[in-house]
Design a protein that fits this description.
This protein is an alpha/beta fold. It has a domain at 6-107 and 192-300: HUPs (Rossmann fold, 3-Layer(aba) Sandwich). The chain contains ten helices and twelve strands. The longest helix is centred in the first third of the chain and has 16 residues, at 27-42.
């Protein structure tokens, strides 16, 4: 249990639930939703719903429709669906003008360059870190044309320190973890790192609640946001994941504990919420959970591991 968690969070926070329509929702997403809405309701905050469909190859309209239906069935209602640039449901695929504007800001500072490297080439050039692929800067000085190339941003070689509301003090060095950040790929698709950073800035998100598997991205997203003019980054709260078995997290692609399957099996929305909360250690038993109880769940959040 994390005593004093609320004191480490913004008053009246603006937070977001941001699923990717690349598969059906599973219990891990429900855990995240419980914590997002629970913290927002406990602190009199606002939840923005954002569909992160930047990956045009994997995103599917049927998955988006299913996740919206499942959220409605579970009783998770967003306070906002984004700002004026979204129009209805906020989809990253409709926000290209915003991302182009952010790219122009970075271009004006001569921070962007074209990169033709494939993942295989990066691996061959020795671009590896302990836990992820690291870009070694192969194209930094090559001056390649941008047609059919990816775009990267030069990031500073500095230590990024921040206080995670759940994990405590964290220090990261993105230049050694990932190298210069890819912001648009060779297919012209905006990347997760860039689109999410721009969206959080545009939508004034000041509390980001997400799984600990995304923690390695935090330092580089803070750096990207600073390059775009954000002086005060969001407060981050990285929570524990729900695992299929030890060391194997739930996956949409594997259809692990899918909400569709649980609904078809006859479970009520309250039972699914309770099952997710129990699997995450927020409840001592898998009992039905009412939405009125969500704010109290924050008292049961524990540090991952």
């Amino acid at each position: 249990m994390l005593s004093g968690l609320a004191a480490r969070l913004p008053a009246h926070p603006r937070t977001r639930f941001a699923p990717a329509p690349t598969g059906f929702l599973h219990l891990g997403h429900v855990v995240n939703a419980i914590l997002v809405w629970g913290l927002a309701r406990a602190l009199d905050g606002t939840v923005v719903l954002r569909i992160e469909d930047h990956d045009r190859e994997r995103s599917r309209p049927e998955y988006e429709q299913a996740l919206l239906e499942d959220l409605e069935w579970l009783g998770f209602h967003a306070d906002e669906h984004g700002r004026d640039s979204c129009g209805g449901v906020c989809r990253q695929s409709a926000r290209g003008v915003l991302y182009e504007r952010a790219l122009a800001q970075l271009d004006a500072r001569r921070l962007v360059y074209a990169c033709s490297c494939s993942r295989r080439q990066i691996e061959r050039d020795g671009g590896s870190a302990a836990a992820e692929l690291r870009y070694p800067g192969t194209c930094r000085q090559r001056g390649l044309p941008r047609e059919e190339a990816g775009l990267r941003v030069r990031i500073p070689d500095s230590v990024e320190a921040f206080e995670d509301a759940i994990l405590g003090h964290i220090e990261q060095r993105p230049a050694l973890q990932s190298g210069d950040v890819l912001i648009r790929d060779r297919l012209g698709q905006w990347t997760y790192q860039f689109a999410t950073t721009v969206d959080d800035l545009d939508q004034r998100i000041d509390l980001v609640v997400r799984g600990v598997d995304i923690l390695p991205s935090t330092g580089r997203q803070v750096q990207l946001a600073r390059l775009l003019g954000r002086t005060n980054p969001p407060v981050f709260a990285h929570h524990a994941l729900v695992y299929v078995c030890e060391g194997v997290k739930l996956s949409k692609s594997n259809q692990d504990a899918g909400i569709r399957e649980l609904r078809n099996a006859g479970l009520s929305a309250g039972k699914v919420l309770g099952l997710a909360a129990h699997r995450a250690g927020l409840l001592s038993e898998a009992r039905p959970l009412a939405h009125q109880e969500l704010p109290a769940m924050i008292d049961n959040i524990r540090r991952p591991g």
